[in-house]
Amino acid sequence: MENPILYGPFIELITMHGLPLHGSLKDEELPVINSGGIVVEEGVVIDTGDYHDLSAKYHSADKFLNDGEPLVATPAFVDCHTHICWAGDRSHDYALRVAGKSYLEIAKAGGGIMDTVLSTRAASQSELAEVILERTEKLLEQGIAIIEVKSGYGLDHENELKMLRAIKEANSKTPALLIPTFLGAHIKPKDFKGTHAEYLAELINKTIPVIKEEELADRADIFVEEGAFDMDISRAYAETLREQGFEMTMHVDQFHPGGAELAIELDCVSADHLETTNDETIMKFRNSDTVAVALPGASLGLGMQYTPCRKLLDNDACVAIATDWNPGSAPMGDLLVQASLIGAAEKLSISETLAAITFRAAQALRIDAGVIHNGARAGVAVFKTDSHRKIFYNQGQLKPAYTIINNECIEH
Question: Do 204 and 337 sit in the same domain of this protein?
């Protein structure tokens, strides 16, 4: 058995342990251990507390980071909504958008998602795995240890499977944890001659059995929106996949309200986007376990309003923030920048913003992560600074110096 490892000392060790999943948070509630340390054995946190007490208790432990620099540690971050498996780019779409065309107008004219679909279909599995790893490395540099990755740019049987297999391949080659989500129901592809319902039936009858057989994903997503899938079709699809053991999430209320109510009604694990969610729907999050996932990268990329995080939190929702990193509406892929900007715009406390990219984001994936406590797998972001407030004060320009994942301490 390897020696335990003692990390620290940290001017501030922010554990996030004991905070509620739902509702608003005050900064004075933030669990901070001053002059703290973390003890890790076989990739698992076995102790936290005062660094000098831990040093005496674990006198034979290997010591890391004790070089006298001011350090702040938080749980490693969770990006619970990304599309980082794609080929090609959509810079042409971006030029049209900033010149005044809407996202839906561009899609109807032949751009949008289908442009990326053609490029992704032309790429091999190994090529897609390589670009996933390149983007994963950039997210790791931001202290992100867990990354949800969607399919959805194949939009036929073989290419959706190719994407999911590429995600599985990439997952075996990175210290980050990649969590796959099947998004064959992104839109109905233009080259499918049947109806929307017939397209989804083909996914259910042909593609889902292979996904289950190869254990490529146990989560699925559907885009509930004008130009994608309507409420009735989405309901039937979600209910069928849930019967087959899939956890469901939904893209909802991005351009038109209504879909979030369906996600809540069906007890989806998350409802993502929510830029146009109205007050009536916001109130329905109060008694729901469906996580409200804000995607400020899409708001920035499309020049539209943010998800109403303040109202959601004040109505006792569980709110997460994710990048939505994709080639069309959210090409930035920088979680700390986006969380800082939406935090300022929506008047979120530091505690609320940090919760939204740690344990509340992990709740959207239904995994135990984003908290530093005994028995948890080690996941820590370490910043060279003297205050956790400066992480968001610097609006994403302060990046972690180290990310600790299981037994590995990655220096950036």
Answer: yes
User: Comparing C-alpha atoms, which of 3, 2, 71 is closest to residue 37?
Assistant: 71
Tell me the pLDDT tens digit for each residue of 278-312: 999 999 999 899 999 999 999 999 999 999 999 99
What is the separation of C-alpha 276 from the centre of its chain, rounded to a whole number of angstroms?
Answer: 20
- Model pLDDT for residues 120-147, shown as the tens digit of each residue: 999 999 999 999 999 999 999 999 999 9
Number of domains in the chain: 2
Alpha helix ranges (H) inside 141-221: 157-171, 196-202, 208-214
Contact 358, 379 (CB under 8 A): no
CATH label of the domain that carries residue 40:
2.30.40.10
114 and 232 housed in the same domain: yes
The answer for 65, left when phi > 0, alpha when psi is -120 to 50, beta otherwise, is left
SS3 labels along 323-365: CCCCCCCCCCCCHHHHHHHHHHHHCCCHHHHHHHCCHHHHHHC
Q: Pick from 26, 199, 25, 190: which is nearest to 109 by CA?
A: 190
287: containing domain: 78-364
Of all helices (H) and strands (E), which one includes residue 250?
strand 247-252
- The amino acid sitting at 267 is D
